[in-house]
Amino acid sequence: MLKPGSGPITVESRVDETIIRYPSTGPIFLQGGQLYVAHRGQLYATYSGRTLGEYAAHNHLALERLLQSLNAAAEAEQFAQPTANSSPGHESGWRPRATPPIGPIGYTGSYREPFAGVVEVSVVSVLEARGPD
Question: What is the pLDDT, as a whole number, of residue 105?
Answer without folding.
Answer: 56
